[in-house]
Amino acid sequence: MESPDSKSDKSPPPTHKLETEQSEPEPKKLKMSTTTTSDDEDTSTATAAPETNKKQRYKRRKIAIFFAYCGVGYQGMQKNPGAKTIESDLEEALFLSGAVPEQDRNNPKRYDWARSARTDKGVSAVGQVVSGRFYIDPPGLVERLNSNLSSQIRIFGYKRVTASFNAKKFCDRRRYVYLIPVFALDPSSHPDRESVLASLGSGNELVKCLECSERGRKVVGLMGRRIFESKGTVESGITSSSGDAIEESNIKEESRAYLENGENHKFTSESMEEAKVVDDSRASEIAAVEAEIPAQNEDTVEKVNLQEGAKGGGFFYGEKERESFNRILKYYVGTHNFHNFTTRTKAEDPAAQRFIVSFNANTTVTVQGMEFVKCEVVGQSFMLHQIRKMIGLAVAIMRDCAPESLIEKALQKDVNINVPTAPEVGLYLEECFFTSYNQKWKDSHEEVSMKAYEEEAEDFKMKHIYSHIASTEHKEGAVALWLHSLNNRNYPDLRVVVGNEDTSDGRCSEMENAVE
């Protein structure tokens, strides 16, 4: 038999139950990042323990790390055996900083490593994100990481994330920026070599382009190694538009002869003859901007002039040019098959289908006295060289080397076109977005975004990335060299027939025929 006392023990007090039901639960505390310690982190014993036992007593935490880097000298972001990469340097810094134990060194799968974007060789980033399970204690992980990294890589901070978070899978969109010099959009700036030779002795001499046009010949190997067999076999020379091999020494002698004889070869392109008029209001704006530009030394000024070449009436990125460039870039927006804008991906491969959210070029920036157009593209994901090829074809169209309709043709599944690839130096990853994740976990976790690091990121961008892009163009003329190779001889696919209309009578063809 059960005693009365036992029965009373089994029934809970009614008043206590009512109080529990009426009381509201306390709101969840956000899992904070950086130097703060969470409630579930027990570090009191670890602090007093010997140095060798600290890593064992601390708990690993799933975090998203925000950082930036200048890609010069690196073979891209992704780790590649035998190559210097951003990822290999970062993994080593994590180990040296105590975030990764000895047994997990060089084994990123053990700490659930993931990256938001895989940038190519020479490409930089301002808002790159990686995730993994790391030891974030004792406080000061960011400082320890930066002390073990070169000045080209800068850690901004980290955020605590859910155990299932993956920087690659949870990234909704990525925003890239390509800085293209304004002179690259000017059809009369840095034409091909034949046009340079034809201009000697005329009022529109391009003497300063002689050297860079010669170095910029794609078939010599500087701008790429692809040689079109249909144009003739070339071993150690240069292929002419007729398919004959021309020795490089002959080209130099030809240049010297033009200079010595001073023959009056005139540039036949119509746009070189028509000077562009700058209105008074725009002229005053340009004068105001030039007044703010710091004085450059003599060498720098010389290289700016070399890169800009003969501008005629003074090309600038005005409203008309902005509308034209944005109209061209808008062709890429939406879901398309980008198999012509990458390598090693066939048209039948589902991976060739990509979605571009937006693509515009509304603003310009001036760095070290050189003006650049800021091309911003947002997409779900991008393939190898995709952005550089999209920029390459858009620039070719702006320079009248290809018809505007060629973009639509290049996006077709059953068409194969060799698309120009713009230099890697002007491209950088600006930000990765995690919109869906932030919406789902906003009540329990911090927002995964660059908002807290915007000021630091801007400083790094101006100091390391923008300055590198401008100085490289000043010293090496990467874009200028590329422009000299941007013609129908090196890219015969730019000469297309749309319906019954032959589009080979564009500006680049005129340049090639100038000396024939």
From TrEMBL:
PANTHER family: PSEUDOURIDYLATE SYNTHASE, PSEUDOURIDYLATE SYNTHASE 1 HOMOLOG. The active site is at D120 (nucleophile). Residues 1-29 have a biased composition (Basic and acidic residues). Keywords: Isomerase, mRNA processing, Nucleus, tRNA processing. Pfam families: PseudoU_synth_1. It catalyses: a uridine in tRNA = a pseudouridine in tRNA; a uridine in mRNA = a pseudouridine in mRNA. CDD domains: PseudoU_synth_PUS1_PUS2. InterPro entries: PsdUridine_synth_cat_dom_sf (IPR020103), PsdUridine_synth_TruA (IPR001406), PsdUridine_synth_TruA_a/b_dom (IPR020097), PsdUridine_synth_TruA_C (IPR020095), PUS1/PUS2-like (IPR041708), TruA/RsuA/RluB/E/F_N (IPR020094). This is Pseudouridine synthase I TruA alpha/beta domain-containing protein. Residues 329-434 form the Pseudouridine synthase I TruA alpha/beta domain. The lineage of its organism: Eukaryota, Viridiplantae, Streptophyta, Embryophyta, Tracheophyta.
